[in-house]
Amino acid sequence: MKKVILAYSGGLDTSVILKWLIEEKNLDVITYTADMGQGDIPDDLEDRAKSFGATKVIIDDLSEEFVKEYVFPMFRGNTLFEGEYLLGTAIARPLIAKRLVETGFSEGTNIICHGATGKGNDQIRFEMGAHALNPNIEVIAPWREWDMTSRTDLMNYCQKHQIPMPASKAEEPPFSMDENLLHISYEGGVLEDLNNPPPEYMWLNVKSLENSADIAEEVKITFDQGNPISINNEELSPAKLLCRLNEYGSKHGIGRIDIVESRVTGMKSRGCYETPGGTILLKARRAIESLCLSGLAIKTKDSLIPDYAALIYEGSWWSDERIRLQNLIDASSKSVTGSVSLKLYKGNIIYLGKESPNSLYDSNKASFEEEGGFSNADMKNHIKKNILRFTPKS
Question: Which of 193, 192, 140 is nearest to 25 (CA)?
């Protein structure tokens, strides 16, 4: 029997897919589960997969690699998609695709399978990433092959094939969710009506403003060459640092958004996201960059954000275009070193102070009270030089 590597969560969809691959495709199924800090991997996942017919179960802790090699490079670019989305789902997909391909190599197969459904972006991201890393990869996408179209169909399949149901329909949330250490996303179901506000019970991490802490909290984040390395002078690994920021943000009601975004295929989609630590980190990064980068460098870097974000969102992390932009971003990050102090309170992130050994800020030059090396004559010459760029208007 040929082998297939199945991206497996242990939920209803991928459990049905596991059985379907055996029954319909006559394949030897090896399941692969990526632990990216989501904290919801069932204790009995291995037993469950094997009871459905998997011959091997792989569970991989990718938390540190995810944050260090994917989240932090993305944040060095201050990346926002369409001005708001911190790309928590999109940035996880290239790593999962990479590990599926690598697992295929180690297990002697070039066949992988994912459970990405519907009209979303993940089919594109998984398959673009896998083909970039192995042009000969064969991808099975059951939702494009079988005649099942709904969760009811999946439940009926379970009954027909005597598969223990991982969850009853009553226990399923009325929306689709994705979680990792950077964020939780919610879409579909009750959220598809734009006039329905997100139900309060939906939000799993970030407290509402009403229920957030009543006492403000101060936090100091230190950066070295563009990456955060410590919180309140305590050095932490990338994953532990992001986890700590998540705790701060969740406690203080920071990081909820409810947006309409443009999917890769062009249609509009509503997404609700919790990104508590990432929201704090982005604010802190912008603050330290304001000290360490020139105005021209900031403007140039900001001009890269839309293209860089789109490449990640569209599944092109492994493209030459993304790598070229990453090299430009990383070069500008070499001088981004220093500390930022923030106050967190009721959804607000308030600057308290910032310092850097590479600071370009000179209080004497900036002062309105002193000339500080920049005279009135200097200002006059600057205006005269720059106004020559303008075409006279009649």
Answer: 140
Looking at the fold, whether 270 and 168 belong to one and the same domain comes out as no
Nearest one of 213, 221, 214, 211 to 241, comparing CA atoms? 221
Question: Over the stretch 52-90, which tens digit does the pLDDT of each residue have?
Answer: 999 999 999 999 999 999 999 999 999 999 999 999 999
93 is catalytic: yes
> Phi/psi at 188 (nearest 5 deg)?
80, -175
Q: Is the pLDDT of residue 159 over 90?
A: no
Name the active-site residue from 15, 28, 63, 122.
122
Q: Let me know whether 145 and 51 are in one domain.
A: yes
Residues 106 and 33 in one domain: yes
**Catalytic residue, candidates 13, 185, 250, 322:** 13
The number of C-alpha atoms within 13 Å of 91 and in the hemisphere containing its C-beta is 33
166 in the same domain as 144: yes
Q: Report how many domains make up the chain.
A: 2
176 is catalytic: yes
Q: Per residue in 21-61, pLDDT tens?
A: 999 999 999 999 999 998 778 888 999 899 999 999 999 99
Beta-carbon count within 10 A of 70 CB: 23
For the question of residue 48 being annotated catalytic, the response is: no
Residue 227 lies in a domain: yes
Range of the domain at 128: 3-172
**Active-site choice (15, 28, 48, 93):** 93
**Which CATH number is 288's domain given?**
3.90.1260.10
Long-range contacts at 74-77 (CB < 8 A, ≥ 24 apart): 74/312, 75/278, 75/281, 75/282, 75/285, 76/226, 76/227, 76/285, 76/329, 76/330, 76/333, 76/336, 77/301, 77/304, 77/305, 77/308, 77/309, 77/325, 77/326, 77/329
Q: Within this chain, do residues 128 and 239 fall inside the same structural domain, yes or no? A: no
Q: Based on the residue annotation, tell me whether 61 is a catalytic residue of this protein.
A: no
